[in-house]
Amino acid sequence: MAYAIDETHDPKLESWVESANDPSTDFPIQNLPLATVIRPIEDSETGDEFTLSAVVAIGDMLLDLNRLSMTELAPEDDSDWDFVAVDQIVAEGKWSGLRKKVQSLLRKDNDALQNHPLRDEIVIPRDDSMMSLPLIDPIGDYTDFYASLYHATNVGSMFRPDNPLLPNYKHIPIGYHGRASSIIPSGTSIKRPVGQQAPAEEGGSPSFGPCKLLDYEMEMGAFIGRGNELGEPIDIKDAEDHILGLCILNDWSARDLQKWEYVPLGPFLAKNFASTISPFIVTMEALAPFRCGAQERDAGDPQPLGYMDSDENRKSGGIDITVEVWLASEKMREQGMDPIKLSKGNFKDMYWTVAQMVTHHSVNGCNLQPGDLLGSGTISGTTRDSRGSMLELTWDGDPFANPPISAPGTQRTPIVLPTGEERKFIADGDEIIMKAYCEREGYRRIGFGECRGIIEAARSV
To answer: Could you tell me which residues come within 8 angstroms of residue 7 by beta carbon, excluding any fewer than 6 positions away?
Structure first.
């Protein structure tokens, strides 16, 4: 069930970390997302030069939970502090207990940490820190869904204008198991993938070489906090108790490789070369004020089967998260130009909720495990500027216009950059920047940070 709004969401709360009180920050004291940072070791007896620490973001600083747990501020008889990594916080379900305690130490009216002799070792500048993936252990499993009706309709209309949605779409959350080993942290460069592409003529031979139609997909990722036993499905009423929180996910996609390989088993090399995630996990507790109803279904649509339906999911299964995609070409960066915004959408415009994805994923007895990652699928809306991929953004069709505008999948208008460069898909040297944040009157704005990646030229073939 959805987490309740409580005193930790009070918009009047302020921190002694002054940057956390800036209305524009992603990380006020009401947020406190989890992350992992790489820190140097001084005078190491083992010869190790670096260590990984669990941290909480607060304004432009990071609070090192590991260093804090070794002080008298974390009492020895308090089991909530007994951990060494975000992974343990996740696996042992400790965050709910820690959240209020960490927030208390960061409040402006509490000087215990503010005046502590080790404060500067415990609270460190974020810009000077090297962020890792949120979890120390490799992500065990990764499943990517296709949960936006608007995205599915756009893509289907490009290639099947008379039948854009396949018969199963409105009955089950469509998904596939992706490659966890190629999930990378924000800021990591991505080499353009190489592979087979469809023959130029029917019956011809495929070509081989660098991807020509490289794309991004604006998604949210959900981290599993508590797993389930093999053979024991997760009830829709309990689904959100198994979710730790959300991050930004860029599901890089090689569209020309995808077109050739996806029949009959779906995505493979077009998707598994890289997926980028933001370093911060915004927990479900922090998202409580920004819940909304699940997307309302048209009168003629089927209702979810009973195992994916509940009153609470209908009333508060959605999450109001604004998502944005920005682009900076290599030439723009060389000339000192700011990135341009490509699109702006909202996570509430998803046909299937996160709880429904979790429930459906486990209904056959599949055992989700702590640290597993679920991708939402591309977040798109009904307007052109809310489309969450270049495949949709540059396409000239519009199935949501009145009347609908039909266009072949190849009929495209390029995006013109401030340098005069044009883009239908991503070029080498382009940097894609994704942002996400929540706003609601009466509550502090919270954000997810950024998810960045620059495309490098393909290896020689």
So the answer is: none
d(CA 425, CA 18): 41
- Classify strands 340-346 and 214-215 as parallel, antiparallel or unpaired: unpaired
- Residue 358 φ then ψ, to 5°: -65, -45
Question: DSSP per residue over 409-427, as a string?
Answer: TT-B-PEEPTTS-EESSPP
| pLDDT for position 275 | 98
pLDDT of residue 45: 62
- pTM comes to 0.96
* Bridge partners of residue 447, in order along the sequence: 437
CB atoms within 10 A of CB 263: 7
Q: What pLDDT score does 44 carry?
A: 58
Residues designated catalytic: 151
Which domains are present in the chain?
A: 7-131 (2.30.30.230), 142-320+347-413 (3.90.850.10)
Angle at 389 between CA 131 and CA 327, to 5 degrees: 55
Residue 118 CA to residue 248 CA, distance in Å, equals 33
Give the pLDDT confidence score for residue 114 in this predicted structure.
Answer: 96
Tokens of 377: 């699928």
Helix and strand tally (H, E) in the chain?
10, 26
Mark the ranges of the chain whose per-residue pLDDT is less than 50. Answer: none
Question: Are residues 220 and 376 in contact, defined by beta-carbon separation less than 8 angstroms?
Answer: yes
Task: Spell out a b/e string for 15-48, using b for 16 or more CB atoms within 10 Å of the CB, else e.
Answer: bbbeebbeeebbbbbbbbbbbbbebeeeeeeeee
Q: CB neighbours of 419 closer than 8 A, spacing ≥ 6?
A: 329, 331, 332, 335, 337
Percent of the chain with pLDDT over 90: 86
Q: What is the pLDDT of residue 388?
A: 98
